[in-house]
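_Full entry_
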Amino acid sequence: MTDYTECYDEKLGNISHLEQRIYKTITERRGKLRERRRQDTKDQAESLVAVAGSTPYLGMLAQDTVVDKDKEVRVAEREGRRLRRRQVREGKGEVRGHNEGLSSDEEMMSKDETVWRKQDQEVREQESRVMEDVIGEFSELPAVASRLSQWRINDQESYNSAYVSLCLHRIFSPIVRLQILRWSPLTSTQAVSEQAWYSSLVPYCLGSGETLDSFSEDPDRHLLSNIAEKVILPRLVCIVRASYDPVSTSQSSRLVGCLARVVEDFPTISHTTKSIKELLQVVVDTIKESLDNDLYVPMYSRQQVESANSPHSLYAQRQFWIAFKLFRNILVWQGVLSDKLLWEMALDRLLNRYLLLSLRANRDVLDSVDKGRQMVQLLPTWWLKANGPCLDKLKMFRQFLLTTGSSPGIPRDAVLECAKLVKKLGDITGAENLRELVLSPA
């Protein structure tokens, strides 16, 4: 046991160094993407200030007023990325129904990709050398687990006398950390329980003659949960802090799915576990930072947005869908984060502050009704219970739909849709009043 622990203690420094290199790389990548996205928003907003509302739409690239070479390069790169994403969607047949602003702009410049590929290759080479001076009996998890398991089966007394159960985490954790060095729940859908280390250790505390009573008294029965809690969760905290982008739908859904599986697969881990609480706090802080810095709703005159294809209209639409995407990504956390936190972020800080502002500025009533419908569909049903505290936070949204449904000349189907939405949001009387508008004689 001393040989094992001393061997891995010697390797921990190298493993920690490799982990820190990876965290640094993904932090830099997220920083560049986030800075570029915010600069693109600023560039477009500034460019449209000088564009007359009557100017026909010739494409955002043609409309940008380029004031310097740096901005000219940024505009060209931005439009090139959008064009390539559009071509990918066309190739997949996903053009119909797509709204500009919902896709994620995660393409990096070739020079940055070259640098990161080089760094990744260096990490891979160093990773392969960490255990090169260690024989398989000490460096391969199945071999280590097999030898200790045989010891436990063949000589339980000496196994207990050596306090092996207390040392298992110290022995297995370094190898597990090395195995998951390049795994991230933000880019992979592989669950923790589907990883190689898990399969290697599952048989460890399940002997051939194991019964329920003997298993309940087995000191090694929580081995998997202990490793998940002491190795996997701290790594998740570092990864989320370094690279989680709440504006990314794929990252949000994968991270929520990963956490749900961790809580489901490891019985000693719950939402009260210290590492889980730390992880969720990092998620909340990251979302709040995104709410403060990634949203912008422009306000234009009626003349500037009179045409749906004017640059001002297209930019306003894009900014709405970016805010809508963040709204949807926040609501993915329902059942994981507390309702109170979600109300604050999704309703108080996003819906009532940004989304409603955009809807009120929208000159297309039917478009506003459709957007409202999509927003209501995202709300959890338990938020909409009669007399629930959440309904008060939806008061302004509900009033907007009532006003929209009462607009002169609005089509009958749109009025009925508004009535349906208002009823879902808790105003039965308002919904009936809208229906009477449709049913009453002209």
About this structure: The two ends are 89 Å apart (CA to CA). Residues 53-66 have pLDDT under 50 and may be disordered. Residues 2-281 form one domain. The chain has two domains: 2-281, 295-439.
